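Troubleshooting entry. The earlier prediction with adenosine-5'-diphosphate gave an output that would not parse, so I re-checked the input for stray whitespace and re-submitted. Clean input:
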Amino acid sequence: AEAALRQSQKMETVGQLTGGVAHDFNNLLQIVTGNLDILQRNLPPEQPRLVRAVGAAMNGAQRAAVLTQRLLAFSRRQPLAPKRIDPNRLIAGMSDLLHRSLGERIEVEIVQAARVWPAEVDANQLENALLNLAINARDAMPQGGKLTIETANTHLDSHYAALDAEVSPGQYVLICVSDTGTGMDEETLAHAFEPFFTTKEVGRGTGLGLSMVYGFIKQSGGHVRIHSACGDGTAVRIYLPRFHGTARDTAARAPAPSAPQG
Ligand code: ADP
């Protein structure tokens, strides 16, 4: 429990530092893209070299903006629009996108528990996070393999809170994204959530995927855990807060809570 506390304090500090830089950087980038936009609109078309140069600059600035957004997500400073979502439906809606992003050699299995609770979370950001996890899984299965996405209702009780400084007891919707890939060694597992930590070659990985997922889920009041070992594949478990809306919203539709699951 003490190690978990130290780890969460470290993430907190790194998040504060990163957030400050990312916030200022984002403002500067807006000056750059705003002015490039004016240039783009007013360039004479008979100057193709200039048009290309400004296009390339805009492209770079937009990629930098994506990176800053991920840093802001990690530092939990992004504006979120949490609302009631049906996790099963959201995942089913991503099925085509997942198949297209993962290619033919990776089998995708979606296992939906019946009567999963509604969750309260920003739907776009959740899709984004799940896609990031799927891409990581793909990268860990260069020879092909299987990606599984499972949903379940879960209750984290004080037992978990005692083991893990970050956990608040309560009812959560669990989304587990697992793969049959390489898995992570201990070193990688220990640093996986940190921004800029990557084992991928330059240009292939930024080390911002998992840190974005981590920050987003924490900001949403949820939890995220990785279970992984070399050769055993990886499972990322996302615990989303159960939607507790007005009495009318929940009483009419919510199923009885199921037994706690790990
Ligand atoms: P990136 O994918 O850009 O490297 P991430 O933050 O998403 O950044 O991941 C950090 C590191 O964690 C990866 O470089 C990789 O070593 C490891 N990792 C993430 N997901 C998986 C996975 N599903 N299987 C094995 N290793 C993974």
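This one parsed fine. The longest strand covers residues 145-156.
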